[in-house]
Amino acid sequence: MELYMHNLKSWFINLSRVGKVSTLSAIALGGLFFASGATPPAPSTPISQPVTAIKNEQKDLIITTQTETETIAVPYSKTSRTDSTLAKGEARIDTAGVNGEKTIVYTITLKDKVETGRTSTESISKLPIDEVTSVGTYVAPVVTKKSAPTASPSTQSSSAYYKNCTAARAAGAAPVYAGQPGYGKHLDRDGDGVGCE
User: Fold this and answer.
1) In terms of Cα–Cα distance, which of 160, 164, 197, 163 is closest to 179?
2) Does the residue 51 lie in any domain?
């Protein structure tokens, strides 16, 4: 009898494990076996169902950002202006040109250390200085040499004579030009046609 109850208990447990019948159904079947005097079947090896474990292999992406800065030159411009005090054809640099600077900041997006995108912003960090050149426009006037006045025939007198420049000045005739009365080479030492200059 003790063996019978042990077998019946094991049979109930196995039925519950495999989930084939409910607990009440197992009790009812056990009562039938008990009333009929039949021996319940020997306990069998518990039926186990394989369980497949699904491991989530997806790795969380690490997103980071970093910045890079670049500085480039901004070329200066050249301008010119006229200067009337400077001779025509000449030029003078009044202001030397200096390049400016532009700063570019890049924002870089990385996923697992791999660049996936970037944006940039620009700003002028140093303004350029333009080169200024003055161009001359001055032209000097042309000076013409005046010719010696010619004495009219009515004023000429062959009798006029001046021993020296002192005498010519005393007579109010200095300077004495070539062709005028009283002109002589002894009064015009440099031979330019004008005596007693």
Assistant:
1) 160
2) no
Pairing state between β 78-87 and 131-138:
parallel
Whole-prediction pTM value? 0.40
Q: Is residue 146 part of a domain?
A: no
**Residue 87 resides in a domain:** yes
**Which candidate, 71, 94, 70, 67, places its Cα nearest to that of 82?**
94
* Cα–Cα distance measured from residue 182 to residue 158, given in angstroms and rounded to the nearest whole number: 7
Range of the domain at 110: 63-138
Same domain? 94 vs 125? yes
Q: Which of 152, 154, 65, 76 is nearest to 111 (CA)?
A: 65
Contact (CB, 8 A) for 191 and 178: no
pLDDT single digits (tens) 102-121: 999 999 999 998 999 999 99
Cα–Cα–Cα angle for 137, 142, 146, rounded to 5 degrees: 165
